[in-house]
Amino acid sequence: MESLSQLFYLHGIGYEYTKYTGEHVVFSDATRSAALSCCGVDVTDHAQIAHLNISLDANKWLQLVPDCSLVCAEQPAVKVRIDKRMLGQQCTVSFAQLDLPSITHQLADLQCSGNYLFNGVTYLELIFPLPALPTGYHDAHINVADLTAGSQLWVTPKYSFQVTDNKHSGLSIQLYSLKNNAALGIGDFADLLALTAQAASHKLDYILLNPLHLLFSEQPERASPYSPNNRALLNPLYISIDLCDDSINNPHITEYLQSSYASDFKKRTQQPQYINYSAVSEFKYAAFNLLYQHFCMYGSEHRKQCFRDFCQQHGATLATLKVTDNDFAYYLQWQAYVQLKLCQTTAREQGMSIGLINDLAVGCAGDGSEFINQQSLFTDSAYVGAPPDPWAEHGQNWGLPALNPIKLSDNNFSYYRSLIRTNMENVGGLRIDHVMAIRRLWWCFEHQQQQDGCYVYYPFEHLLAVLTIESHLNQCIVIGEDLGVVPPEVKAALADKAIFSNSLFYFEKDYQGEFLRPQSFAAQSLLMVANHDVPPFFGWWQGGDLTLKLKYQLIDEQQLIQLRVERDIEKQRLLRFLSGCAAHTLFLHSTASEVYQALMLGLAAAPARLFTIQLDDLDEQTLPVNIPGTDQEYPNWRRVLTHSCEQILTNHSAFLSAINAIRTN
């Protein structure tokens, strides 16, 4: 049992946690064994357990250097591990790609940072100083006597990439929900391009997007951007037909868009409150085929070379697609890439200090191309979720396959590095959904008769280093969505790396349940009233979200009565918060618009460097885009805005100017 306990630890299988009730919970051996079994370990095979313990512990000391070495840019050094009896030898480090001379030191002169006893032999860890190295990943060769080893040096800056220390304001949007100027039933990159110009004119600095990940074209009603097909690829439905060069002088696309079929489609999709993904997908993919055929027949040699260059540059990512027509699928990815890049370039040219902020979902669907292509890195039958909380006493299973923390390091974490890099391309910021995942994730096991789970820990330092390095290589700020139960070491490490935290006003309270004062919010944070998982402010103030829960049988009549009482208490707390911000007279019967504007003007004075305004709230939406805990019951990820972006921002021009005056004061 001692060997199994050691393997639990080495494999990252958690031992305990503190429940939301304050209860100290110790995971059972059966639960921890289930987690190991999902990683392909036979917990009854004592020989395998012993072998794995040596492989994950002692073997690290038998390697001259690890496969990848974390190197602090401010004090660069690599850790070399040797048999103590070799102290009289020299060590030489040479660089494979950098134009730097080899460096040699006597091992006896190096500082010792640790030791390990194995089979009667003492092994030492020595600190080998290096010259200044550029941020990034650099191959190095290390020689001691007749031993030679290679290591990839991960040169990591002290902080993640930063913009100016000024306060910044921006919008939060669900791209699909924008009123489409082309009347094709879904917001697209042309609408985003127009919004960047409008946002810049109102002196906004960024637009926070929903995840733009590839979904399932064969199953268009699978609309959740947080359960995607592939996180390294883009959703073609966001492609604007009018922005494609292949729509120019293309009689076939002109005829198609002016056909009676198109006219009928536009009539059916222009007014409804919810997106009909099946109809939109059918219409747009037919148009995409016409664009692609025109490109194949009439595309200039320059454009075809650009396409080839794109395919070569993104070959590894494109290869993960599981489709029957690769060239067509690659073409769509190219067009999406080009249009997203155009939006970011335009945003920066118009004066937005950050531009677009992308959103990375915490996982991928178990039947998607990302999982299928990288299946060896994932567990068998372990799924990502959340521990019990007041809203889900039995915990939550999100149905996203869990990554094996040991396999994740394969090929120097190439999978994770590529995932972060592709999501930082062509944007000025990246929000990491459920950022606690780089430290630990709650695993759920589907074979249990009743839902069971535990925390499993990941190689935190390496994943954090990837975020930091890639942020500099891509000139991209990083925001960690740290809502919920967050280990203190995660908060401290994110702060140390100057990664922005994510604060939702709804959840930020003191021990008495009162909303925190504006000055309580950390400077290195993104502050917003709500996000996609909670009701928009107008729905919250009017209590429409509670009525909606009753409608979809998420609560009963008695619970509705109790929740309305609790909501009135929350609203009174909000009024007390507002009374401390400015002189005004607001009451429970005040309109949502009056209270919302007072709230936003009060929060605008917070030290938070990123202050986010939801476009949904400016449009006075009452229906949520998503109700957690529902799938088909409520039309999640489909609700569209009532007005165009131009109308919304124009109508709130004075309000946005007032926010800007507070933020720049």
Automatic annotation (TrEMBL):
Q: Which UniProt keywords apply?
A: Carbohydrate metabolism, Glycosyltransferase, Transferase
UniProt GO MF annotations = 4-alpha-glucanotransferase activity
Chain segments annotated as transmembrane: none
Query: Family per UniProt?
Result: Belongs to the disproportionating enzyme family.
Species classification: Bacteria, Pseudomonadati, Pseudomonadota, Gammaproteobacteria, Alteromonadales
**Protein's name in the database:** 4-alpha-glucanotransferase
Q: What is its EC number?
A: 2.4.1.25
Residues forming coiled coils = none
Q: Which NCBIfam families match?
A: malQ
